[in-house]
Amino acid sequence: MRALICSLVVGGVSLSAPAEAQAVEFGVYEGETCPSGYAPLTPADAFWTFLFTGCNELPYSGVFRIADGNSIDGPWNNCQQHADDTRELDYILCKPNYELFDIGETTFAAVRGGGQCLEGFEHVDFATVSAYSAEICTHVGYWGIARIAGGGSIDGPGYGCGFRATDSRELGDSICVEIE
Q1: Where residue 36 falls among pLDDT bands split at 50, 70, 90?
Q2: Which residue from 147, 162, 161 is spatially nearest to 110, judged by alpha carbons?
Q3: d(CA 53, CA 57)
Q4: Quick one: the chain helix, strand, coil %, rounded to 5?
Q5: Phi first, then psi: what are they for 27, rounded to 5°?
């Protein structure tokens, strides 16, 4: 009977990782903040990214900032994470926090957080948003609102894809267009 119970329990347990459990693309940056278009790795990102491969690609003796005031050691200390690390650190691990998309021959970027554009991009102007609002809207985020040039904004599909030339609210996301 014991083997039967165990096999039922084992049969009901998923051996796969949760949906958000995956290695992420990241870069090492100097300082304590990520550049525009990037966000710090979360502790879960760091765990899953370094779980199977270790953190041997990081500088050996470094300590690196990750999200929410946490840090992770380099290979010298087996990629150990530390919560609430108040030390000032020289490096931060950042993951891309933007989406590139094309409309015709033009490349756009939906940048999450920070309210700025990626290097080589600028906020898209109101006329372009007016002409391509349906296409741009789908990249804003369902319940998102993103900054455009001139202090305007565009809503995501959940808000009906509206757009306005001026919007005094503070918005963290941006819709940008590549500078020609």
Answers
A1: confident
A2: 147
A3: 9
A4: 25, 30, 50
A5: -135, 160
Q: 22: which DSSP letter?
A: S
At 52-70, the pLDDT tens digits run 888 899 999 899 999 999 9
Please report where in the chains the tokens 């918005």 appear, as a residue: 171
Query: Exposure string (b/e) for 17-47, b if CB count within 10 Å is 16 or more?
Result: eeeeeeeeebeebeeeebebbbbbbbbebbb
What does the alpha-carbon distance between residue 130 and residue 19 come to, in Å, rounded to a whole number? 36
Distance CA 173, CA 20 (A): 22
Q: Does the CA dihedral 113-119-123-127 come out positive or negative? A: negative
